[in-house]
Amino acid sequence: MVLGDLGNQISSALAAMSNTTIINEETVNNLLKEVGNALSKADVSMNLIIQMRKNIKDKIKLDQMAAGLNKKKIIREVVFEELIKLLDPGVPAWKPVKGKPNVVMFVGLQGAGKTTSVTKLAFFYKSKGWNTAMVCADTFRAGAFDQLRHNATKAGIPYYGSEEVKDPVMVAKKGVEIFKKEGAEIIIVDTSGRHKQDNELFEEMKQIETSIKPDNVIFVMDSSIGQAAYEQATAFKTSVKVGSIIITKMDGNSKGGGAISGVAATKSPIIFIGTGEHIPNLELFNAQTFVSKLLGYGDLSGMFNKIQEVIPEDSQSLKEIASGKFTLRSMQAQFQQILKLGPIDQFIGMIPGMNNMPQLQGNEGNLKLKAYINIMDSMSEKELDGKKPINQKRMLSLAQGSGRHPREIYELLEQYKAFEKMIGTKGPGGFSNLANMASK
Ligand code: GDP
After folding, report:
1. Any idea what the CATH number is for the domain that residue 20 is in?
2. Which of 134, 277, 278, 279 to mutate to test the pocket of ligand 1 (most atoms within 8 A of CB)?
3. C or N terminus of the chain, fewer CB within 10 Å?
4. Where are the beta strands (DSSP E) in 16-146?
5. Is-contact 99 211, C-beta < 8 A?
């Protein structure tokens, strides 16, 4: 099962729960069973699933919920929070510090994508104006230095390695020394991997770590590793001070469960994901955004960042989103801002409720937004401010008034619900916080 299937299965389970009229223990149990099955098929370890189900049950106390509370919404939010928790160990992600050399050591099994990710990371920071350098401390695999040299040259990044010296500790130490003297701000050391975890590899890694004293050890893990992930990540974590994770090959048919187990085993955050073989194919990782996209909610933080390029920080609609209030009027204002971005084909998938509309391409997305804006133009002030509900009859008259198909009115209101569902999420880690974050 690929990651997309995991998202679909969990979304369907949540939708099935939303469609039931009575919410009781049985509904919650059925939902948890479905969510558990989906995670299990994605290779998430059973222990983690059991723990997650327990956390959800502990948080949902149906008998203590006051009448009138929106139970379905609370349950959805709890499931969402717990999914995020699986991917977020709650420790801050490593960030290099300006004005000093930041030494980063890469570890992982052979073939995980270490050397490729070393170059990607160096290139990522180079593009942001950091002085970066790469060191090849893999003296075990023939051709490792050649590969690093090739990648570094392609990315225009200084590198160090040796064909003669066979002691990886010496090579790592020398490389770091040279680049520290040269004033490099980020020095990335690639170490060797083996096909299997062997004692020699771990001993060598420990010695390199002691010698170069890295500011961060990054564990590189192939996303398709599956059930073996937990054990493997634990083995690395107990040998060296793993501080961050990069998950590679997320562009493939990955089940993704390995990533979740890797986080649990190392208690380290995923900082980047590799999404292709090429140097720019590295994306910053954010658990909230990831889960949000997985469940088809769109990428609000990406969207806010984009919107911020064109709207002033004190815009009323951004303020409303940040405060968790979101009306059709705010949505109309957002759409108008989004249209200013020009063609939105690159960007349409970030909009909640629109990420499942593959039929919208290029200009079609812009036309759709314009149509929505026109429909909202036909609404009354009270409707725009959420003070008057829009029933079926009114939907038909809005269709007539705006000259659009009634289906589009329905789509628009569904879209609004998708937005509202995300933005209205309160509490730590909620989407109102996300909007806050983005508007800072
Ligand atoms: P290492 O042995 O851990 O250093 O692994 P390499 O960096 O040599 O990568 C092993 C293979 O995985 C190479 O063919 C890479 O091109 C490929 N690879 C690495 N990262 C990614 C990724 O994010 N996506 C895809 N599709 N391939 C990747």
Report:
1. 1.20.120.140
2. 277
3. C
4. 102-107, 132-137
5. no
Token duo for residue 397: 């008259």
232 lines ligand 1 (CB under 6 A): no
96 or 303, higher pLDDT: 96
Q: Where among 261, 292, 323 does a domain terminate? A: 292
Ligand 1 pocket check for 252: Cβ under 6 Å: yes
The secondary structure element, H or E, covering residue 216 is strand 216-222
Q: Are residues 364 and 392 in the same domain?
A: yes
Cβ–ligand 1 contact at 276 (below 6 Å): yes
Q: How do residues 51-98 score in pLDDT, each as one tens digit?
A: 999 999 999 888 877 776 778 888 888 998 898 898 889 888 889 999
Which residues lie across from 220 on neighbouring strands?
Answer: 246
ipTM, 2 decimals? 0.99
Encode pLDDT of 205-232 as tens digits. 999 999 999 999 999 999 888 778 888 8
Contact between 31 and 17 (Cβ < 8 Å): yes
Q: Tell me how crowded residue 333 is: count the other CB atoms within 10 A of its CB.
A: 20
Question: 212 in the Ramachandran plot: left (φ > 0), alpha (ψ -120 to 50) or beta?
Answer: alpha
Return the C-alpha torsion angle 134, 136, 137, 138, nearest 10.
Answer: 140
Range of the domain at 230: 102-292
| Largest Cα span, the chain | 81
Pairing of strands 132-137, 159-160: parallel
Q: Does 303 share its domain with 258? A: no
- Residue at a domain's end among 55, 87, 119: 87
